[in-house]
Structure formats: structure tokens, C-alpha cells
Structure prediction request, 282 residues.
Amino acid sequence: MAGRLKQAGLKVTAPRIAALGALAGPGHRTAEAVFSAVTSELPKTSLQAVYGVLAALVDAGLARKIDPAGSPALYETRVGDNHHHRICLNCHAVEDVDCAVGESPCLTPSNMDGFAVQLAEVTFWGTCAACQAASTAAASA
Amino acid sequence: MAGRLKQAGLKVTAPRIAALGALAGPGHRTAEAVFSAVTSELPKTSLQAVYGVLAALVDAGLARKIDPAGSPALYETRVGDNHHHRICLNCHAVEDVDCAVGESPCLTPSNMDGFAVQLAEVTFWGTCAACQAASTAAASA
DNA sequence: ACAGTTGTTTTGAATAACTCAAAACAACTG
DNA sequence: CAGTTGTTTTGAGTTATTCAAAACAACTGT
Prediction:
């Protein structure tokens, strides 16, 4: 964990190690969730420090930030692959989606019209399986 | 304008007509921009009313809302086609991008894994032609 | 044209999620 | 171990938006 920070050119500090720990594993966490995880280990850590740490991690390429409309930003440590997200309009659950078609299906023309594309963000909005089940159950009740 | 509202099942009110007028034509407007346009015509209109109007228009399918990370939400009246956006990381300019590949390239599997996709949102982040020109000019100065 | 109903707008306030800045402090360098 | 650079704390502030209650206006049927 510390090594990863060092490699990225970041100073190794306790809040950063704790934040990386909190983000480890699959899934997506809000800044608030990372803050709770970090403070359970390092109670004096401030929320602002967590925002700073997360920004540093994103800058360094150790984390990725996604910012779904209408929800707080989420952070994940799955970086480097061109993967996307699907978000349930009902329960706001976020799940990863691999790029299915071809290699980088979404980055299509990397330069259209003089515009230099650096990142293509794809978000699928819809209804997750659980919420579909719940709503058909409610309808038939 | 009024007919469009009526067709959509909305009551025809002055703020709604003015807001539709403010959104007419190409481009994207913030709620604040719509508010200024509306108040120049109807000075007593409140900002909250504009938010209400915009929400109603989006609900009725007469407008579309996009919510770029780090900027206020934008509204446009180009609806019904599956078009996307490119946003300059530097100047935050937003432009429309037609779906280039195939018919609905981005809606790929409309049902993956039990997840019912209702909308695929694609955003290209990068540097617009103007900002590229400006930055190379600055570099060579 | 008019009263009633339903939905809209005003008014007033509140909130979530961040962001900014200055000072105290801690990691890494040599 | 001293110095430099970058991080974290402390404290405050902001933007974009939402909520709620009351006043009001558009459409419906007569």
C-alpha cells in the first residue's frame, strides 16, 4: 500500500494508507464512506483531509472518481482499464460494466473535429434486477 | 410553443413559454441562464419557478438535462435522438456529438445481466480545438 | 361567463457536498 | 538531524439545488 503511494510519487502518510485500504476491493465508496472508514482507524482525520487524499489519489492515477448526476461522487481503485458503469435509477446502485464490443468501443474517434478526446465516460441508466423484481412484485400485489 | 406544452399534457403558463423560448435553438443553458432570459421578459418570475419549469419540461420529454461533473446542470431542447456530448476539460464548453457508429452504438446490450438499460449517456472529456490552439500558443511564447 | 379543481408559482428557508485559505505539522532529502 | 516541500488541521464559506406552505392561475364542465 505504502509502496503504491511511493511509486506514484506521493508522500506516504497514514491517512493515505488508510484511504487506500478503505477503497480496496471491488465497489464504489463516497467520500463520506471513506471518511468513516479512515476515522475508525485514525480518529483525528478531518473530512477535508479525506477530500485532499482522494483528490491526490485520483491525480496520481491510483483511484478514479465518478460523479453520477444527483448523487455524491464515488471513488474506486479499479483504474487503468476502460470500464464503465451502470446505475439504477431507482436505488442508485452502481456496478461496473466492462467494455463489451471490440477493444475501446466507446473511445471511437479519438479526435473529432479538432477535439482531442482524453476520456470517454459511458453511463448506463436503468433499473437493476432487484428493483425490477421489487416493482413487479408490488404491481401484482 | 404553447401547443408543444399542451401536447405534452402540461398547463400552458407564461414562465413555461418563456423558458421554452430561452432554450430554443442549439446549445445548452444553465438554469441560471434560463432564469435571466425568463426574467428579462417576466421580471417577477422566481428562480424556483424556473427550476420547477425545467423539471416539468424534462419530465414531459420537451427538454433534456445533462449534469456534467463539476459544473451546474445544463438543459437543451434537442431531444428524442440518441446524441451525446463532448466537454472541454479546460473551458467547460459543451458540444453535441452525434452517435457516429451504427444506429445506437452506445446502447449496446439493452439488457445485461437483468439490468434494463433505459438510457446510455456518453460523455467525451478532452480539449477543444480552441483550447489546444491557446495552449500551444502559450507554450511557444 | 363562472365556479371548482388541480396543478403552478411565489415566498422564504434550508441543505448537501464540496471548496478555499491560513497556520500547524510531518515526510522525505542530503 | 536540519531543511524543504508537501500534507493535514482548523475554521469558514459557497454553489447549485431542494423543500414546504400559502397564494394564485389554467383548464374543465356547465
User: Anything to note?
Assistant: Strands of chain B lie at 29-30, 64-66, 74-76, 84-88, 94-97, 111-112, 115-127. Residues 81 and 141 of chain B are 43 Å apart (CA to CA). The helical segments of chain B are 2-7, 14-23, 31-41, 47-60, 129-140.
